[in-house]
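pasting for ref
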Amino acid sequence: NRERAAQIAERYSLPFFLSMLLEIRGFHEEGAIRDLLSGGELSDPFLMKDMDKAVERIRRAIETFEKIAVYGDYDADGVTATSILFTYLEAVGADVIYYIPQREGEGYGMNLNAVETLSNEGVGLIITVDNGIASVKEVERAKELGMDVVVTDHHRPQEHIPQACAVVDAYRSDDSGPYKDLSGAGVALKLVMALEGDSVGVLEEYADLAALGTVADVVPVLGENRVIVKTGLSILTRGGRAGVDALMEQSGMGGKSATATSLAFTVIPRINATGRMGAPERAVRLLTCDSEEEAQPLSGEICEDNDRRREVEAEIAKEAMDKIENDSALLYSRVIVVSGEGWHHGVIGIVASRITERFGKPCMVISTDGDMAKGSGRSVEGFSLFEAVCACGDLMERYGGHPMAAGITLKAENVPLFRERINQYAAKTCPEMPAPVLSIDCRLNPSALSPEMPQSLQPLEPYGSGNPQPLFGL
């Protein structure tokens, strides 16, 4: 609508090309345009359900010097969330440790062995970040052992939520907070803001870590996430946190302006590699250390992990692609379910992404190991993999995820039946499976191109989910 684009350009004194793109993407209202271009603002953290209970319980633990464990996750969102909360609690004098489960052996989220271990270490309060919303049994066990649990998460709740002291998750059906799409690091940041009673100062202190988690978790870079990422990028470009600076330097980002896109291809895969290839707590050690002497060798180790991750991933991807292309039943199924013995659990999710990209279909890559199997899946827009997995829930030992990605654990003998059942579900609920779509913003006349055109779009940065890099057809 060229007329409306012209009105936007005139009203907000913007270049016509930028106004045209805002119009195409549905940013018509003053508030939406202002939030996109200026970064929006953060809402009061106490608007989130149970935030008051979480703050009250954590403050009590700080004041009585009760031992607190921050229970995180091994991916970049979980690692940055853990680093934010651990650094803050340490700074205010709490007796605090952190616990990151191993991807191999423990898997995602809380597990009963870890709960027992923390109890034996004298922990009185566990605070989960980026996990916990599905940990009903584990929270129950913690209570039996005399520990309290505060859950902070951003994943969608299942039928029952844990009976914890507080459950802070914007996706709770009874949460009336204005913003839902925070990452795990974003929720941890809001918790620290509530504890400190100062949103501005906390944002300035921790937005770099929260931005890394937000970009890593591919949540929409709109609304409150936009404030977090914009602020975080300027802090990351300035530098000042020893571990992050070392990692940026060794990722080839030293001295360059940080953008959401550059982080997604350099620093974030390296943070993720520690969880994929071995000891994820090293990433927290790196992000929370304050000496260059400690940061440099740790950062070097993490970069080596990433190189090894690439090699392992390439080998498994080749094996999986060969299996699919040589088996017409796999190749022509609606949901590709491909399995192999002893595939590295740390990379099967990335392999699933590559298969989905290659064949344009939802995919679940499963690694069998003796009697048990673990799988990681990716989907295409329009087919909820999480709902599909839920429909096969009786075959699972545990499962979780969201519409575009899911993780499962099941008995190895159930893999063929799972393949059959998920495809039956897809046939029934989605008679016409969605085809992959390339979304362009608009077609341009080549004669209209100029060096100024891309420059005029700079106010749209940072790009990310919900506000992708512009794409044009010629």
